Amino acid sequence: MKNKWFQIVTLFVLFTLIFNACEDKVEKDTTSPTVKFVNPTLGSILSGTVNIEFEIKDDKELKSLSITIDNESFVTDSTFMGRDTLKVSYELKTKSLTNSDHVMKVSITDMSDNIHTESVSFQVDNQSKWITRLPEDYLCVFIMEKSDGYIILVEHKQNDYDSKYKTFLLNQNGELGSLIDTYPDLIPYDDNNSVLVHRQTKDGLYFIRKNKIIKINNDGFFDLSYSINIDFENFVRYSEGSQGENLIASNNGWIGLKKETYPGFIEFHFYNLDDSDVEIKRIKVPEKMNIWNYKLQLIGSISDSTFILTDMEFIRSVDFRFIYIDLINPEKSFVDSVSELSPSENYNPFVRISKPPNRIQLSDDGYFILFDHNRGLLLKYENESFTHEATLETDNRFEHQYFIRENDIIMFGGDADKIFNYSKSGSILVTKNIRDAFGYYNTIQGVRTNIMKTNDGGLVFSNIGDRSASFTILKIDSKLNLPKE
Length: 485
Prior knowledge:
By secondary structure, this protein is mostly beta strands. It has a domain at 34-124: Immunoglobulin-like, CATH 2.60.40. 6% of the residues lie in helices and 47% in strands. The chain has helices spanning 2-24, 349-352, 435-438, and strands at 34-39, 45-46, 49-57, 62-69, 72-77, 85-93, 101-110, 115-124, 130-133, 138-146, 149-157, 162-171, 176-182, 187-188, 198-201, 204-209, 212-217, 228-229, 247-249, 253-257, 265-272, 275-284, 296-301, 306-311, 320-326, 334-338, 367-372, 375-382, 385-393, 400-404, 408-413, 418-423, 428-433, 451-453, 459-464, 472-476. The protein has a five-stranded mixed β-sheet, with no helix packed on it. Strands 10, 11, 12, 13 and 14 form a five-stranded antiparallel β-sheet that branches. It has a four-stranded antiparallel β-sheet with strand order 9-36-35-34, with no helix packed on it. Strand 7 and strand 8 (115-124) form a beta hairpin. The chain is elongated. The N and C termini lie far apart (89 Å).
């Protein structure tokens, strides 16, 4: 009996020893999982809606993860439990974050509760480039930049014949805010955006609609106490029908070239911002200049007393010609031409020459551009003379807008979808396609795309889209980088 118990005890001890020996061979998991950031990486600049992506691995099995941004919870996920490696992606709407630096932390846990945390710093910048869709039947007329965003003036279609002016807030990220004010009077609906002449001052925005000057204060409210009228019939050529064809913004108000005057004279009308009285100045044109007043188009001013015009009739059949007029010293007036360039085929100066507000923009070093169909003629004004510096070839047509910066030139055509960046020697530096921002939208012929320079060196395009869809406002940065919708 004793031997039997001895055998039982011996077998139990042996079994226990064997079991413990086997158990000791199962090593405890002490290896933490790993994470590799794909997007963002250190120093990334994010905007719009982006995918946060990273790769996670474990030597055995993953359990869960958690993500925080600036110590605030962003994602908690365990749907991948049991896998040992995978690439994860989560959508981040960066407009929910401030335009500043941020820190993202990712903590990975495996099935043995080993935890590994990695962090990455990135920057959010939604104010240098963005896309904003306007409500249906809204057309953006003008944009005023503020320190904390923008005020936009829109034309809101009421029916097939009438519309109303409204102002809205737009924040730095381009998000449409609340309605500020509505102009009380109905205006004829115009999907071509015929508010062509405007002047922005420290007191607000002045613009001309039909025969009336309308003022918007810096807070976005219409100044109904301001009332000055302009007789547009003096400046519109009936063959074109475009409002303000011979009316341009000046330093103090507006200058108009009267469509009809005494033979041998050119007549200018000067309108002050704060005075309804008009000052009229006439200049006798030397016969040798061979120009006719009713065929002239006022395309820009060098100063409030010197102007550049084109001869609509003369330019049709001969070299590109422009006229320099000096009101103070008429004897200094002259006719000049870019002799090596004849007008392009099917040239129509009534629509090809840049119209208000896209008038001559004389840079600090004297450069400006005149347009001949799909070419920009880069001219330089210096010591009361002009030199042709370069020809800027584009595949854009119709109305062009341009900005001459310190070292380069940006040009955009009103019915095309490309932005051209040139050096001042005329060589092309960069071409950007607007469609890259939208995928399928482009600018529409007949709808004016207004462009405004912003304080950060970028550009805002006010009307881009499709007639069958809502229009958009597009902001690009100073390096012409496009946002992504």
